[in-house]
Specification:
two-stranded parallel ribbon; about 35% helix; alpha/beta; Rossmann fold; seven-stranded mixed sheet
Length: about 190
């Protein structure tokens, strides 16, 4: 309640229990930012030569194109708070229209929504993960890309893809990693 009434700067919780058990009361008590419909979780992996943010790693099982667009925009704002210019990749098994599956179409629709709402944001997709992390591949496969470098914000099509990617990078000792921070909520919250 203190955070909701602007009497404190942030909220930490979760030293015991699951992310989900802490998220529900945080969402109910603290609430969402005005005009925001979707909460999402974002993790960071700090690798030797690159820092990558991954979303949505814990909350939305199979978000719609509209939710993915909102999540991407919220996550990009959060990345900026770290002092980093976001370069957003909407990931898929499909690259730049190579497949017509429901998931690939959803990611292309999300891209259209993002471009309408944030035309200056460096965002591209739908694309494979290797292309997202390697500007050389992007330039070869899609030379007209809006990304000026390797992506640093990976937006996944569903919860499984995001959580698996994060945990594989974490287990592979790719670098240090951060807790899943909720994006879209009122004020600063961290759930450990």
């Amino acid at each position: 309640m203190l955070l909701r009434h602007h009497e404190t700067d942030g909220l930490l919780c979760g030293t015991y229990g699951t992310y989900e058990t802490h998220l529900k009361p945080v969402a109910e008590v603290v609430g969402r930012k005005p005009g925001i419909n979707t909460l999402a979780a974002m993790n960071v992996v700090m690798m030797p030569n690159q820092t990558v943010f991954i979303t949505d790693t814990y909350i939305n099982e199979n978000p719609t194109a509209k939710q993915i667009a909102e999540i991407a925009l919220l996550a990009a704002d959060e990345v900026r708070r770290f002092g980093v210019m976001p370069r957003v990749a909407l990931l898929s098994h499909s690259s730049f229209g190579s497949a017509q599956t429901t998931s690939a179409v959803k990611m292309r629709q999300a891209l259209e929504l993002i471009q309408t709402q944030a035309p200056d944001l460096e965002v591209e997709g739908e694309m494979h993960g290797d292309a997202a992390l390697n500007k050389g591949i992007i330039d070869r496969v899609f030379p007209g890309s809006r990304l000026t470098g390797a992506a640093n914000l990976l937006v996944m099509p569903n919860l499984d893809a995001a959580n698996i990617t994060f945990n594989v990078l974490k287990a592979g000792r790719a670098g240090d990693y951060g807790r899943p921070d909720p994006v879209g909520g009122r004020g600063d919250q961290s759930i450990f």
